[in-house]
Design a protein that fits this description.
The structure is a single chain. By secondary structure, this protein is α/β, with parallel strands linked by helices. Helices cover 33% and strands 19% of the residues. It contains 11 helices and 13 strands. The protein has a 7-stranded mixed β-sheet with strand order 3-2-4-5-7-6-12, sandwiched between helices. The radius of gyration is 23 Å and the shape is globular. The relative contact order is 0.14.
Length: 323
């Protein structure tokens, strides 16, 4: 069969095309090393002025509700947003109910997927390149590893590998973290590993207000976003806030000072924000002043805010929920 194939005219035609392409590539000059880090991300879209929130209600909402409402508003705004993941369709709306009601609100655009993480993110990559804006869910951070080929090598490098000819606008939502039931297979934090993968924006909200603002920015990003949702904060009372309106969007790379102080800077994110605030309250009774900075974004992280705080306090402690 192979010998027969080699006799066909199309074989010679393809072989000639491949050889010409190889010769053209070999003849091209070597790229300028100074351009090696161009087009990793469409960076300017990550930074903008954070608006003062206008609240639609004075009643606080949970973090899962804030993400749900943000997704609903962005799906209404952009018809190219589609969603899939394990059990995310109604009536369940995912393990934690975050996508509840969206299947009925947007028929055909919110679907259950197979139990195959490589497929979930791989299909999202292809559809994003074609012009859709997928927002997909990995049920728990512990399940994400089968998709690492796509998540590490394929998705975040599209813009760079194509010399800015293509982009890959998608959001991968992942439930992470511990402090509630789950054990060692449902409680992993994954931000440290992905922080070493150029091309991703990585965000990790700790409150309802920030979660809604960040999911809206993620849904409008022209680059891939890893959106980490701590499952212990979905319904935690301290994470509840009044709900910002549909225009509220939080810029990536801008931290929030959760408590000002002068003796020590604690840099943190996710559930450890509340541990840090508790410690700061205890230390205040002893006459110590602790500043608590909630990064909100892991990539990019707000170097300016952290350095400004450390110049003031001369001491820094990083508090995070390791795996």
């Amino acid at each position: 069969a192979e010998m027969l194939l080699e006799t066909l005219p199309i074989y010679a035609e393809i072989e000639g095309e491949v050889n010409r392409a190889a010769e053209e590539a070999d003849a091209a000059p070597q790229p300028d090393p100074s351009t090696a880090t161009l087009y990793i991300q469409d960076s300017p879209q990550a930074f903008f002025e954070e608006p003062s929130p206008r609240y639609v209600s004075s009643q606080p909402i949970s973090m899962w509700e804030a993400i749900n409402h943000g997704l609903r508003e962005e799906m209404e705004r952009n018809k190219q947003i589609v969603m899939w993941g394990e059990d995310i369709a109604d009536p369940k709306g995912g393990v934690f109910g975050v996508t509840k009601g969206l299947t009925e609100a947007f028929p055909g655009r919110v679907q259950n997927s197979s139990l195959a993480e490589a497929s979930i993110v791989g299909v999202a990559c292809g559809m994003a390149i074609l012009g859709y804006h997928p927002i997909v869910e990995i049920q728990f951070g512990d399940y994400i590893w089968p998709g690492m080929l796509q998540l590490r090598d394929e998705i975040p490098t599209i813009r760079w590998r194509s010399n800015n000819a293509w982009n890959c606008p998608l959001v991968v939502r992942v439930a992470v973290g511990g402090y509630i039931k789950g054990g060692p297979w449902h409680s992993t934090n994954i931000e440290a590993i992905f922080a070493h993968t150029p091309g991703w924006f990585i965000v990790y909200p700790s409150s309802a207000e920030d979660a809604k603002g960040l999911i809206k920015t993620a849904a409008r990003s022209s680059d891939p976003v890893l959106f980490l949702e701590h499952k212990g904060l979905y319904r935690r009372l301290q994470a509840r806030t009044p709900e910002p309106d549909a225009d509220y969007a939080v810029p990536f790379g801008k931290a929030r000072v959760r408590r000002p102080g002068s003796d020590l800077t604690v840099v943190t994110w996710g559930s450890t924000v509340y541990l840090a605030l508790e410690v700061a309250e205890q230390m205040a009774a002893q006459g110590r002043s602790i500043e608590v900075i909630d990064l909100r974004s892991i990539l990019p992280w707000d170097e300016e805010a952290v350095y400004a705080s450390v110049r003031k306090t001369n001491r820094a402690l990083v508090a995070h929920e390791d795996s």
